[in-house]
Design brief:
The complex is a heterotrimer.
Chain A: E1 11-12, E2 16-17, H1 18-46, H2 57-69, H3 78-104, H4 120-150, H5 166-192, H6 204-212, H7 217-241, H8 249-258, H9 276-281, H10 295-303, H11 309-313, H12 315-318, H13 325-339, H14 359-363, H15 370-374, H16 382-394, H17 400-412, H18 425-428, H19 430-435, E3 439-440, E4 449-452, H20 455-459, H21 464-476, E5 481-483, H22 493-497, H23 501-518, E6 522-525, H24 528-537, E7 545-547, H25 548-557, E8 572-575, H26 589-596, E9 602-604, H27 633-643, E10 648-651, H28 654-666, E11 674-677, H29 678-684
Parallel strand pairs in A: 3-5, 4-5, 4-6, 6-7, 8-9, 8-10, 10-11
Antiparallel strand pairs in A: 1-2
Helix pairs in contact in A: 1-7, 1-10, 2-8, 3-4, 4-5, 5-6, 5-7, 8-10, 10-13, 21-29, 25-26, 27-28
Chain B: E1 4-7, E2 10-11, E3 14-15, H1 18-29, E4 33-39, H2 43-50, E5 55-60, H3 69-79, E6 85-89, H4 92-105, E7 108-119, E8 122-129, E9 134-141, E10 146-150, E11 166-170, E12 179-185, E13 199-203, H5 213-223, E14 227-231, H6 233-237, E15 258-262, H7 268-271, E16 278-283, H8 290-293, E17 296-299, H9 302-314
Parallel strand pairs in B: 1-4, 1-6, 4-5, 5-11, 6-10, 7-10, 13-14, 13-15, 15-16, 16-17
Antiparallel strand pairs in B: 2-3, 7-8, 8-9
Chain C: E1 2-7, E2 9-11, E3 34-36, H1 38-54, E4 57-63, H2 69-78, E5 82-86, H3 96-109, E6 114-118, H4 128-136, E7 140-149, E8 153-159, E9 165-171, E10 174-178, H5 190-195, E11 203-204, H6 217-220, E12 223-229, E13 238-239, H7 244-257
Parallel strand pairs in C: 1-4, 1-6, 4-5, 5-11, 6-10, 7-10
Antiparallel strand pairs in C: 2-3, 7-8, 8-9
Helix pairs in contact in C: 3-4
Classes of the chains: A mainly alpha, B alpha/beta, C alpha/beta.
């Protein structure tokens, strides 16, 4: 049988050489693509610097391997995740084939080195890519039906934020299916026309070959050429279409994951590389216009695939606060597209707050980190929110209810404006002091271990019990420790997150001086917010920082801490992960191990636990600012504990305790559920 | 002591009850006591004042129809001799008028006093500072007269209305002013502003059920126009009351004259929203922390106590 | 519009931490922190907003000592263009009239269309604004919670009893005492204060203001604070006991005495 004429050797419309057409496709397609990318990169050039993204290369390579190539986050949403992985791996496999195919239009016998059909690797590859095309085709078919027909709620777009992106999603699925069909058809008709090649069974190409077996030679020849140029057209169209919307991630994801955050828990500096003195010389603080974002944050905007996972996990969004992390990104991306158009003049930049964002939206975030934990593309939110808040603070636009605690923090080192000398009053109570004598640095005491108590645990009538229990635990395990007393200031974990950088710097430097002067060699804290600040936001503090749960686990293991059998074996316990212990610092197991070290304690898990734990609505200054919301996060949380069959919810954070105790009453679960703090639970069960 | 004058306030042709207290205060300062009423068409008010004060000066002038502080001040200067003591009830009118009057009289001025004694030409007064946490003894040299604004309740009122005093009309004189009254704007109905209320009936979890909210509203209604219902956070969370009624660090900061905490335990966050005022706590738990900060405490179930109180107030 | 805002540095009593000293005649001052009087902060914000709309400058002035510099800088960080510190040993112990007299000296040296004070400060007298206006023969309004600037005059709202607002027209120049809630004062962070830390603040004494030292300070004061004391029922609530009827009777008396029931 006569072989088919390849596209390169064909005469299009009878007189134009096919290779020329193919060549023009490449020139125009690649040129257009390069132009679009250059335009898209323009704002990144004007963006704020961030050299930290080029440090820590091993961690970045690992992220590329695990998050990008390994698609580790995808199965967290099983169905969509598996579909995505099929398409992702299919694309990776087909990338080589696509490159070859473009060249084949000019040089029909071209094959990438080692991938010629008569070579072993090439033979295997040819089988793989046919299956890949088939899998991608069907995955896209299912995805298109899922998006177009079933319309999962996660993708809905509120009316005020414009139209939804279903059409774009389905359209792209169709293009990809078209690519798979034309690619397969191009090859299948060769075989149908008698070309000697192996087509793996049950692939699209195999099916087409069977379909067209015995078809007239002329028809096959036409299909061969037409499928090739359809594929070429679709391919270059697709390439240039990607940077127009949410499918930009196909191109940017590799870079975004490579540059994603590798350190946890910390907040970005005001400007990367700035010194404390340099801060004074800055003309403006924080992000006010789109150009104030760093280039990585802009890359985040480009990279968002609009999958909605962040907002699906966001507690603020869940309770109806005016914040949806997904739209922080989408709105910023659309603004970048608008202000930096592919054709025409760049537009003048307007302040972000009041144009695309509202102040309420920016204050609504609890910085719990659930969104970042979920994002499969390494997009960041907390640093952006904090940068936007820094801009608001710089303009004096701070909600009235927050101004007082901030002022009190500046004057007195705690948000309530309580007198410094009363900071250690919890330790001076006669009854308690008789039982447990706490050393205070201000009295000239020293020791190797410093217990950093932080404001709420020092002053709140209810939470001082955490300080007392922590002290008793440390005392029992014979850990010689002291507290800073009136020299201790608020750790500032919330202050920096509320964008008051200068106040944070002040609190931080006072604390570091006091800690260093105390001569301590290690810091222990019972407050996860203090733990996080000291560990991640105090880079100048060189001492190790431990959470009390880590101490408990260590001391149980080495036998110094002996725990009695659970007091009431009928009770069922559940553990609520504080954001600043769990997500921000990866301490999921220590508190659980501390609990289960109590013989007979029955621990159940809530529906959302560990890195998906639901924020209680935040600590620190959130006690003073609560935006509009339909329900309270902590109420949802205690209902979750109740649904899990628990009758005791164990918190490891004073702020969680405030919120949980309140929520139990609001939810009307008083007689079915109680809240207890981890140190209180351990103290109750200590053999003294 | 020199002559003593008391400026009396009246609304809609009705003399304010504070007159019955001012007469007691005035008599404590000196023997020669005169009330002054200003307005337009105020014969009835002046007659009522004469039941309380031995002497009443009536300044009746169309220009005084509304008590514009600047205009009233000019009228007062025209009738009050130098060296006199002038008493006001401490309210928003006194704040507007009295300080300037003291300058024009070249007399001493002290406002919002809660106790008053006379020692020669010195007036010994007590004032509150820091939201009533501490008091101060303040001595006023009244040798060249004084203007004093008394907090209501400083003296027990004399309700006998048996003075049988005389009314003397006085001319207003030149009362042209650089400040002109336009109108009174009333708050929009339904637009609650608890921060402006004089008395708050504030409810907490002790109210137990949404249906019981009504008893708080009934009490506030009985207590008069300045009373409003407010609440702690759980009540707002339960959507039993609108968020604008919430007192606390995440709600409103209030400074009423009287704060009635009904079934409120007194959490940190809630107390953070109360900045002064006399606090009455009603709670069935005698150990409720609210009793540590309240001025007066009552151990009672609010569901029983409030309706009884409402009834008693209505019977007054 | 040239606006002068009179501000005061006061003890910050946001959290109930006022205690008596060992002698029992004064409050314990060692642990006090000071800040700008809350009402003054609203006054400065209002002045800035007016100037933003109609042009002009905002000047803040205070009567105090060297430490009062702090509150002037804070208000300048908010947006006031100039600060003036009125300080002199002769000013010590001034009563409200004394302070008003000192401020008049400052007003006379300038050319202000509008003068603001806070409706009250730490002592709750609320007198200085009204006194200053009377001394200047300017019209005055207290407890102002709304201002609309017009030509040569202002339309202002006063907060009066029962949540009502008394609307007035007032000629310029005038003195207004500003009530909280008239606006939402902007936040001033440490950064803002640092940025104005180098600005020179003129200090004026009695001689500079042409004041007779005997008319101000302790010498001129007719109103003198003798001492501080803790009111008797300060510690915990006075518990009302007896039958409900008895309690209610007492409670109604208490309500009347405290202005809760008229």
């Amino acid at each position: 049988m006569e072989h088919l004429i390849s596209p390169a050797h064909s005469m299009i419309l009878g007189f134009i050489p096919g290779w020329l057409i193919s060549f023009l496709y490449v020139v125009v397609g690649v040129g257009l693509f390069a132009y679009i990318i250059a335009k898209r990169l323009a704002p990144l050039v004007k963006a704020a610097p961030d050299n930290s993204r080029f440090a820590n290369i091993p961690a970045r390579l690992k992220n590329i391997a695990v998050v990008w190539l390994g698609q580790i986050k995808q199965p967290r949403y099983m169905f969509a995740g598996v579909l995505h992985m099929m398409i992702f791996f299919g694309f990776l496999t087909l990338a080589l084939r696509t490159c070859s195919l473009v060249v084949i239009g000019m040089f029909p016998d071209f094959a990438l080195p080692g991938l010629a059909a008569d070579q072993p690797v090439g033979a295997v590859y040819n089988v793989l890519k046919d299956y890949a095309a088939t899998i991608v085709f069907f995955a896209c078919l299912v995805a298109a039906i899922r998006r177009g027909v079933f319309k999962p709620a996660r993708y809905a777009v509120p009316k005020e934020l414009g139209h939804d992106h279903t059409a774009e999603a389905v359209f792209v699925c169709c293009i990809i299916m078209g690519l798979m069909v034309t690619e397969s058809l191009f090859e299948a008709v060769l075989v149908a026309a008698g070309h000697d090649a192996f087509l793996p069974p049950l692939t699209l190409a195999w099916a087409f070959a069977h379909l067209f077996a015995g078809a007239p030679h002329g028809l096959l020849q036409v299909l061969h050429i037409v499928s090739y140029y359809c594929h070429d057209t679709l391919f270059f169209f697709f390439l240039c279409f990607l940077p127009m919307g949410k499918h930009f991630h196909v191109i940017t994801s590799l870079f975004n994951v490579a540059f994603m955050r590798v350190q946890r828990g910390n907040i970005k500096p005001m400007v990367y590389g700035i010194t404390a003195e340099g801060l004074d010389d800055l003309k403006s603080f924080g992000v006010k216009k789109i150009e104030d974002f760093t280039w990585k944050h802009m890359l985040d905007f480009y990279t968002c695939a609009d999958c909605g996972r962040c907002s699906d996990q966001c507690p603020a969004n869940l309770v109806g606060r005016p914040l949806s992390p997904r739209f922080i990104t989408i709105k910023a991306r659309d603004l970048m597209f608008k202000n930096y158009p592919l054709r025409g003049e760049m537009k003048k930049s307007e302040p972000l707050i009041g144009s695309i964002f509202t102040a309420e939206e920016i204050w609504s975030c609890t910085t719990c980190g659930a969104c970042e934990q979920e994002c499969p593309l390494g997009i960041e939110y907390i640093d952006k929110i904090v940068d936007l808040r820094r801009g608001l603070v710089d303009e004096g636009e701070v909600p009235q209810t927050l101004q007082k605690p901030l002022k009190a923090l500046g004057k007195r080192g705690n948000p309530w404006g309580k007198v410094e000398k009363k900071r250690a009053d919890w330790a001076k109570d006669k009854e308690f002091a008789a039982e447990c004598n706490v050393k205070i640095v201000e009295n000239g005491d020293t020791s190797d271990t410093l217990y950093f108590v932080d404001s709420i645990t020092s002053y709140d009538d209810r939470m001082i019990n955490i300080a007392r229990c922590t002290s008793k635990i440390l005392d029992t395990v014979q850990e010689d420790f002291c507290i800073l007393g009136k020299q201790e200031k608020d750790s500032g974990n919330e202050v920096v997150r509320f964008g008051e950088e200068m106040l944070f710097q002040q609190l931080k430097s006072e604390n570091i001086d006091a800690i260093n002067e105390s001569g301590a060699k290690k810091v222990v804290t019972s407050d996860p917010h203090a733990y996080n600040a000291l560990k991640n936001d105090y880079p100048e503090l060189e001492l190790p920082v431990e959470h009390i749960s880590e101490v408990i686990v260590k001391k149980v293991k080495d036998g110094t801490l002996k725990l009695k059998s659970v007091e009431d074996p009928t009770k069922v316990y559940t553990y609520h992960d504080p954001c600043y212990l769990g997500r921000h610092n990866g301490l999921y197991e220590a508190p659980r191990n501390a609990m289960t070290a109590i013989p007979g304690l029955k621990l159940v898990e809530m529906e959302k636990n560990r890195d998906r734990a639901l924020c209680c609505s935040g600590g620190g200054l959130n006690l003073f600012y609560e935006p509009e919301e339909n329900e309270r996060m902590a109420v949802l949380r205690v209902q979750m504990a109740h649904d899990a069959g628990a009758n005791v919810i164990v918190c490891a954070c004073p702020f969680c305790m405030v919120n949980m105790e309140d929520a139990i009453k609001v939810a009307g679960l008083d007689d079915q559920l109680e809240a207890i703090e981890l140190t209180e639970l351990i103290e109750q069960h200590m053999e003294k | 002591m020199a002559q003593v004058f008391a400026y009396l306030v009246h609304n809609d042709g009705v003399l304010d009850d504070s007159a019955m207290e001012l007469v007691v205060a005035a008599k404590a300062v000196g023997d020669d006591v005169t009330a002054i009423v200003t307005g337009s068409g105020i014969d009835a008010v002046a007659d009522d004042a004469a039941k309380i004060f031995p002497k009443v000066i009536k300044i009746d002038d169309a220009g005084l129809a509304y008590p514009n502080a600047e205009v009233v001040r000019k009228a007062l200067i025209n009738v009050i001799p130098a060296g006199s003591v002038v008493l006001f009830t401490n309210n928003t009118f006194a704040m507007d008028c009295a300080p300037g009057l003291s300058i024009k009289m070249d007399a001493a001025y002290v406002s919002d006093i809660i106790s008053l004694e006379v020692d020669g030409t010195t007036l010994k007064t007590v004032r509150q500072e820091f939201g009533g946490e501490v008091n101060t003894h303040v001595n006023v040299d009244a040798s060249n007269g004084a203007v004093i604004a008394l907090r209501p309740g400083t003296f027990a009122a004399d309700e006998s209305k048996s003075a049988g005093g005389s009314v003397e009309a006085a001319a207003a004189g030149d009362i042209s002013a650089k400040r002109t009254f336009i109108e009174i704007v009333e708050p929009e109905a339904g637009d609650v502003d608890i921060t402006k209320a004089d008395l708050l009936v504030s409810i907490g979890r002790g109210i137990e059920d949404e249906d019981n909210i009504e008893i708080a509203h009934e009490l506030a209604e009985a207590l008069g126009a300045g009373a409003e219902v407010s609440c702690s956070r759980p009540i707002v969370d339960a959507k039993w009351l609108e968020p604008s009624r919430q007192v606390g660090t995440s709600g409103c900061t209030v400074k009423p004259k009287v704060y009635m905490a009904c079934g409120i335990s007194g959490s940190f966050q809630h107390l953070g929203g109360i900045k002064g005022g006399f606090m009455i706590a009603i709670n069935k738990n005698e150990n409720a922390p609210i009793f540590q900060v309240a001025d007066v405490g009552i151990v009672a179930d609010i569901l029983e106590f409030l309706p009884e109180l409402t009834e008693a107030v209505n019977d007054l | 519009m040239e606006i002068l805002v009179c501000v005061k540095r006061v003890p910050d009593s946001a959290e109930n931490e006022i205690e008596m000293n060992a002698e029992g005649n004064d409050i314990e001052r060692d642990d006090l922190v000071f800040s700008v009087n809350e009402w003054d902060n609203y006054a400065v914000e209002e002045a800035i907003q007016i100037v933003d709309n109609v042009g002009g400058t905002v000047t803040v002035v205070t009567v105090g000592d060297d430490e009062s510099d702090e509150v002037l800088r804070r208000e300048m960080a908010m947006g006031a263009a100039k600060g003036i510190l009125l300080t002199d040993d002769a000013f010590e112990g001034s009563d409200c009239k004394g302070v008003a007299t000192i401020l008049k000296g400052c007003v006379d040296k300038g050319n202000y269309d509008l003068i603001f004070t806070g409706a009250q400060a730490d002592e709750g007298a609320g007198a200085v604004g009204g006194m200053l206006a009377a001394m200047m023969d300017y019209p005055y309004a207290s407890l102002v919670n709304k201002i609309e600037a017009g030509d040569g005059k202002l339309t202002i709202g006063r907060e009066i009893e029962g949540g009502n607002q008394e609307m007035n027209e007032i000629d310029l120049p005038c003195v207004l005492s500003i009530q909280t809630g008239i606006n939402e004062p902007r936040y001033v962070g440490i950064r803002g204060i640092r940025q104005v830390s180098g600005v020179e603040i003129p200090e004026l004494g009695a001689a500079d203001l042409g004041l007779d030292a005997a008319a101000v300070g302790e010498a001129g004061a007719k109103v003198k604070k003798v001492d501080y004391f803790v009111p008797e029922s300060g510690d915990g609530a006075e518990m009302l006991e007896g039958s409900n009827d008895q309690i209610i009777e007492k409670l109604i008396e208490i309500l009347k005495a405290n202005g809760g029931l008229q």
